[in-house]
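Thread amino acids onto this structure.
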């Protein structure tokens, strides 16, 4: 049972999540495992480190406009970016963030037995 995922997130969005300002992480495609409970946050280039984690408080999937109405207050992004990100998609997904932890020292991927950063996400055996 895969209960953890390593998620690649752009540094500006990863920092907004870890500061508590961004309570939704948007995804075009979502993991299939229903047992995921924790998300390990990998800040992509130029940071290229694991900087924290959060508990998954559920996944919202809906038509793009409906999802925006539900999440916009704590989206951490502008509507124009949202529309561009989901261009060509009928359904949008948002991970609900809770119980955020920022690591005191960023970690290398190798700390999680991972050699290369995932394009989107990777299940972890923790």
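Threaded sequence (126 positions):
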């Amino acid at each position: 049972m895969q209960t953890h995922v390593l998620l690649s997130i752009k540094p500006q969005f990863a920092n907004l999540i870890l500061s508590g300002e961004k309570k939704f992480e948007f995804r075009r495609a979502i993991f299939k495992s229903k047992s995921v409970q924790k998300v390990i946050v990998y800040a992509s280039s130029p940071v290229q480190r694991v900087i924290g984690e959060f508990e998954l408080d559920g996944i919202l999937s809906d038509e793009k406009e409906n999802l925006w109405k539900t999440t916009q207050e704590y989206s951490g992004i502008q509507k124009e970016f949202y529309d561009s990100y989901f261009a060509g998609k009928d359904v949008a997904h948002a991970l609900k963030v809770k119980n955020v932890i920022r690591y005191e020292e960023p970690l290398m991927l190798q700390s999680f037995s991972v050699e290369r950063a995932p394009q989107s996400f990777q299940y972890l055996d923790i």
